[in-house]
């Protein structure tokens, strides 16, 4: 792997800026080795959910809060979907993966209400996790008085987890927050990196059973990255916060664009499902060619070429131009003009 691709993300030293995102793919040892051989800088393991952490805490003698008891009581509905059956199995997975791989292994936790996060995060570090990704998935708005209360609860939880570990803590956020740049500033006291954005399954309604359903799909090869503007906004507002782009990074051009927009690394998942681990090598070759073309000797050289963010005038002009072009293309009366 060319040394020019060496980079840093939240205290981790990586040999490349491509990180394999959380998915069941990384459960398989052979697949993890293929990802490593293809040039991945790190691998995020599948998520362990807060129901499982609560169950682990209960089995290890911790008293549960009423809310945790309620969550645990509802876990029968979700447990048949769990990739890892329980917390102890997950710790064994982390231990084996970190022992066999030569690149950082990042554990992934999904949720944020579990009071046992701190104890379990410490166990993950003991098991060999190089970092922990906390995929923040908050419950319904009806449980909170305001959006500010939701954000404060999340920030408190993140600081608690961070205080219990010495490895980096990365926070994975969805795009439905009022102002991600301002959250980034607040997270500086509790997280060593942000992942933008966590993709959630689409909620659907089955008309036959009249029940809710969730639809998950991988992004297609022709979809573009939809987080460039957010990356630029967060990076320009809070340059001290390390960023990982997540969602839609499927080829070398996507990788280069998110790095120029402010990301330190790109998390890749759907492309690996579509094309296999070799797509990582293809992306990195494209990145090296781009860097050679522009006489960039290191990732730091690339970062100095970032446009950061559009000026308000430039962004407004591009916005109006895009909308009016779309209207002309779809307006029959404009034919021949």
UniProtKB/TrEMBL annotation:
One of its GO terms (molecular function) is dihydroorotate dehydrogenase activity. The keyword Flavoprotein applies. InterPro entries: Aldolase_TIM (IPR013785), DHO_dehydrogenase (IPR050074), Dihydroorotate_DH_1_2 (IPR012135). Pathway: Pyrimidine metabolism; UMP biosynthesis via de novo pathway. Keywords: Flavoprotein, FMN, Pyrimidine biosynthesis. It comes from the Bacteria. One of its GO terms (biological process) is 'de novo' UMP biosynthetic process. GO terms for cellular component: cytoplasm. Its cofactor is FMN. The keyword Oxidoreductase does not apply. This is Uncharacterized protein.
